[in-house]
Amino acid sequence: MTSNAELKNGNDKFQVDSKYRGLESNVWIELNSLNDVLGNCVNLGQGFPDFQPAPAIVAELEKVCRSDPNLYAFHQYARAYGHPRLVKALAALYGKLLDRSIDPMNEVLVTGGAYGALFYTIMANVGAGDEVIIIEPYFDCYEPMVLLAGGTPRYIALKPDAVNSSASSASWCLDMDELGKLFNSKTKAIILNTPNNPLGKMFSREELTAIADLCKKFNVLVISDEVYEWLVYDHNSHIRIASLPGMWERTVTIGSAGKTFSLTGWKLGWAYGPHHLIRNLQIAHQNCTYMCQTPEQEAVAAALEVEIGRLGTEQSHFQKLTKELVGKRDEMVKAIRDAGMVPVVPQGGYFILVDWTPIESTVDLESETDQCEDIRFVKWLAKKKQLLGIPPSAFYSAEHKHFARNYIRFNFYKKTETLEKAKEILKLLQAPNQK
Ligand code: PMP
Ligand code: GLN
């Protein structure tokens, strides 16, 4: 008989399959483990609020989960492509926002978080030989998903045209000539994320129109990750690329209940678009998890129905969310500036990039061994100052990780008490010339 040790050691058949090789490390796993080990950090790392979501949506889930024989069906499988009440609510919501009729049964798919929607969109549309354009900095899972599908990622980085303490994410721009050069006959798709994680950049109508024109010219699919669609500050407005002329037909738009209602642990997301594209996702979905959690779908549907009626009013959950978040953003911006560091003020989303190099002389980067300096800084800050952030090099391809060198990402969607603790730490980090 073969021993366990023999089975484990040197047994090629039991190694992870080649398609996953090179994908062993993951920034969220690594940083959350560091946080667990340290046990005492103020956690501004992974993006989630550290307080209860709106009571109304939690009440909807409680309603569904009551022990009542009449509600038995909510504990059983739902329709594979999405619980009818939820797909109807999503079709009504986006139909209103895009000013078009959306077929709930054929043009909407409910998925396991936005991750699920991204995975299906990429797996079902990208194959060997296809190139996919990814705009840096990008939510880290895009790259491995494209590689798993057999595609080739082609990267282009947003670059700041101003680096100063009042600069906003709007100053990070795409070089349109450089973008144009990436498009060719092998280009299958471009992945867009607006508002962007980690930068908070919101693409303007002019930028989206230029991207759309290239996609139409080269017959390219747009995968539009809009999970932060409701987290929009100042006078910015979220523009859905699917709403631009001729773009509905070539766009899959992705959303997340986790971001929409601040309950990331529910892991419910969706994709919408024309039937000929959503059909591809349906095929991937029915051959993977097949369907998503019924009780949560019912609760999210009920909450969305209420919000559709309140869109644009003071009662809107989305307006309240934005109001609450912009205050938190401004508090963090001030604390970062007071500490002598340079924030990139986000137009949307709930993350802020900070240039920490003004305090570099006070940091012992040699105490860490990682190749990327931003990772060393993040680890030093967590271990020595008990403040956890995320190294933005995770959002860049191998050849462009140096663009992230000077930055750390903080999540500011935290309760006042947590932000106060973070501000105390930032105060102690103050740059030498600020003291
Ligand atoms: N896209 C972006 C840009 C994100 O920041 C995240 C993180 N939540 C996701 C997709 C995945 O969302 P979900 O938690 O709904 O899977
Ligand atoms: N989207 C969240 C973030 O950027 C969480 C990502 C994750 O947990 N994988 O922090």
UniProtKB/TrEMBL annotation:
Keywords of the record: Aminotransferase, Pyridoxal phosphate, Transferase
Pathway assigned in UniProt: Amino-acid degradation; L-kynurenine degradation; kynurenate from L-kynurenine: step 1/2
Domain annotation Aminotransferase class I/classII large: ranges: 40-422
Annotated Gene Ontology cellular component terms: mitochondrion
PANTHER family documented for this protein: FI04487P (PTHR43807:SF20)
Assembly: Homodimer.
Protein name in the entry: Kynurenine--oxoglutarate transaminase 3
Organism placement in taxonomy: Eukaryota, Metazoa, Ecdysozoa, Arthropoda, Hexapoda
